[in-house]
């Protein structure tokens, strides 16, 4: 009897075991695998991480001090955190970044929004919040609330996250329609609003703050919908090691305050380079400039520049503040970058004498390095533009000027081309990529105005001195114009 019971038990055990094996084989694909660091191990073995991004002012671009951008700095620090080098691929738009990560990339960092239904990548923890914003062409009235968008020529970028806010709005306003593009970037979208091709657009608030100076005919409208989270993307199916490392890195940056510092540095101000009022300028002219006039004259004597031009550059850079520090770490009266200061032998950028001398010699070196085909004032204006944006981007603008059938040796033609470096259609054809090309245009214009005003004040002082010497007490009776003509 026990033998029969034992045999029955063995038979049932074999049956249950066989059924369990069958069930496991059927369900195996759905059972989560134990996380491994396979992908992270591969990155560390090859000693670099490949990050896919976009060439835009909020992500990555070549700035005055070299590669820069909010997410570039994060990516660079993350690579250091992993102990590897950073290999960057910036020839992307928002949609192609995810494809690249899925196919062969290590990391996607391109102002990516956290969106549902993305099954082929993992997203990291949120980095910052991105708030959709409606902007519209100056002159259009009554755009104050979501319903006002119905019937307008409205545009946005596809796969950037802003279209999600529009889709949500469309549930309430069925007649709402808009255009999307995966080929444009924010600057190009704003250019279409300014030109009248679009009535309005939806971008993110921080993007508008970085671009608004270059599109004076585009107005801030209203916030639309809820903010989205900016995240990074890593591929699925290669272990969770890289995702966990990225999350740990981002959490550390948030806890130690580094992330907040970067956010404030890049997005906490509008970074305007606007021409200040005459009254403010004249106040600085009387109080600040006399402290540095002799230094500007000494630098002018060694470099061959008009001291008043160097003073105008110094005012544009720092408002004649020897202790000035920009949000990006450029500092001193002539706002020298650390590499430029080293190149010019300046060891203390806050020392006014060193800063003025180094800035003047750097401007001279830029002017001397320009092609001989650029002459006269055009050469001076282009050297000033290069002081602001770098020679590489200036050469890119000259090349595009030639492509457009204009003269790359004339400042007026190059000035028209420089803002195109903000548009993907054009900067994709260049060596150095995206640049805030509208900035050097404003920069040179301002310096020319400051120079004219300094020259006018100096000329007026000399005239009044001569009148005093001649015993003339009422100069208002003499026939000379006291209002300086300002070039546009």
From TrEMBL:
<comment type="function">
    <text>Murein-degrading enzyme that degrades murein glycan strands and insoluble, high-molecular weight murein sacculi, with the concomitant formation of a 1,6-anhydromuramoyl product. Lytic transglycosylases (LTs) play an integral role in the metabolism of the peptidoglycan (PG) sacculus. Their lytic action creates space within the PG sacculus to allow for its expansion as well as for the insertion of various structures such as secretion systems and flagella.</text>
</comment>
<keyword id="KW-0998">Cell outer membrane</keyword>
<dbReference type="InterPro" id="IPR023346">
    <property type="entry name" value="Lysozyme-like_dom_sf"/>
</dbReference>
<dbReference type="Pfam" id="PF01464">
    <property type="entry name" value="SLT"/>
</dbReference>
<feature type="transmembrane region" description="Helical">
    <location>
        <begin position="12"/>
        <end position="31"/>
    </location>
</feature>
<keyword id="KW-0732">Signal</keyword>
<feature type="domain" description="Solute-binding protein family 3/N-terminal">
    <location>
        <begin position="48"/>
        <end position="270"/>
    </location>
</feature>
<dbReference type="InterPro" id="IPR008258">
    <property type="entry name" value="Transglycosylase_SLT_dom_1"/>
</dbReference>
<feature type="region of interest" description="LT domain">
    <location>
        <begin position="271"/>
        <end position="488"/>
    </location>
</feature>
<dbReference type="InterPro" id="IPR000189">
    <property type="entry name" value="Transglyc_AS"/>
</dbReference>
<keyword id="KW-0472">Membrane</keyword>
<dbReference type="Pfam" id="PF00497">
    <property type="entry name" value="SBP_bac_3"/>
</dbReference>
<protein>
    <recommendedName>
        <fullName>Membrane-bound lytic murein transglycosylase F</fullName>
        <ecNumber>4.2.2.n1</ecNumber>
    </recommendedName>
</protein>
<feature type="active site">
    <location>
        <position position="317"/>
    </location>
</feature>
<dbReference type="InterPro" id="IPR001638">
    <property type="entry name" value="Solute-binding_3/MltF_N"/>
</dbReference>
<keyword id="KW-0456">Lyase</keyword>
<comment type="similarity">
    <text>In the C-terminal section; belongs to the transglycosylase Slt family.</text>
</comment>
<keyword id="KW-1133">Transmembrane helix</keyword>
<comment type="similarity">
    <text>In the N-terminal section; belongs to the bacterial solute-binding protein 3 family.</text>
</comment>
<keyword id="KW-0812">Transmembrane</keyword>
<dbReference type="InterPro" id="IPR023703">
    <property type="entry name" value="MltF"/>
</dbReference>
<dbReference type="GO" id="GO:0016829">
    <property type="term" value="F:lyase activity"/>
</dbReference>
<keyword id="KW-0961">Cell wall biogenesis/degradation</keyword>
């Amino acid at each position: 009897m026990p033998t029969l019971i034992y045999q029955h038990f063995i038979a049932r055990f074999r049956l249950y075991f066989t059924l369990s094996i069958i069930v496991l084989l059927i369900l195996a694909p759905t059972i989560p695998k134990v996380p491994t660091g396979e992908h992270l191990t591969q990155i560390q073995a090859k000693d670099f991480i490949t990050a896919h991004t976009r060439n835009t002012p909020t992500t990555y671009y070549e700035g005055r001090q070299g590669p820069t951008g909010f997410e570039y700095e994060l990516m660079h620090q993350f690579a250091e955190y992993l102990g590897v080098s950073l290999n960057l691929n910036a020839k992307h738009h928002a949609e192609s970044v995810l494809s690249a990560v899925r196919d062969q990339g290590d990391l996607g960092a391109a102002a990516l929004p956290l969106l549902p239904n993305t099954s082929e990548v993992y997203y990291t923890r949120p980095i910052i919040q991105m708030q959709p914003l409606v902007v519209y062409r100056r002159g259009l009235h009554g755009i104050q609330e979501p319903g006002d968008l119905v019937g307008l020529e409205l545009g946005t970028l596809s796969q950037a996250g802003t279209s999600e806010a529009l889709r949500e709005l469309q549930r309430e306003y069925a007649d709402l329609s808009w255009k999307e593009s995966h080929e444009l970037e924010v600057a190009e979208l704003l250019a279409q609003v300014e030109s009248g091709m679009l009535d309005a657009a939806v971008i993110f608030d921080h993007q508008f703050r970085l671009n608004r100076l270059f599109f004076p005919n585009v107005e801030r409208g209203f916030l639309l919908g809820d903010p989205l989270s900016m995240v990074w993307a890593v591929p699925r199916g290669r272990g969770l090691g890289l995702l966990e490392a990225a999350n740990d890195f981002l959490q550390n940056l948030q806890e130690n305050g580094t992330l907040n510092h970067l956010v404030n540095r890049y997005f906490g101000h509008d970074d305007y380079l606007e021409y200040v009022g005459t009254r403010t300028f004249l106040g600085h002219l009387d109080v600040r400039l006399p402290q540095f006039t002799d230094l500007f004259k000494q630098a002018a004597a060694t470099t061959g520049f008009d001291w008043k031009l160097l003073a105008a550059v110094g005012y544009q850079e720092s408002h004649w503040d020897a202790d000035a520090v920009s949000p990006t770490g450029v500092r001193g009266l002539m706002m020298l970058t650390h590499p430029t200061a080293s190149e010019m032998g300046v060891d203390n950028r806050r020392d006014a004498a060193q800063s003025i001398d180094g800035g003047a010699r750097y401007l001279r070196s830029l002017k001397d390095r320009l092609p001989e085909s650029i002459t006269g004032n055009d050469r001076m204006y282009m050297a000033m533009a290069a002081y602001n944006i770098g020679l590489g981007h200036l050469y890119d603008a000259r090349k595009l000027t030639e492509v457009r059938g204009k003269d790359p040796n004339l400042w007026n033609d190059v000035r028209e081309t420089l803002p195109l470096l903000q548009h993907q259609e054009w900067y994709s054809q260049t060596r150095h990529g995206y640049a805030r090309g509208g900035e050097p245009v404003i920069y040179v214009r301002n310096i020319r105005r400051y120079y004219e005003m300094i020259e006018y004040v100096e000329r007026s002082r000399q005239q009044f001195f001569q009148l005093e010497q001649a015993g003339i007490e009422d100069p208002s009776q003499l026939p000379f114009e006291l209002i300086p003509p300002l070039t546009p």
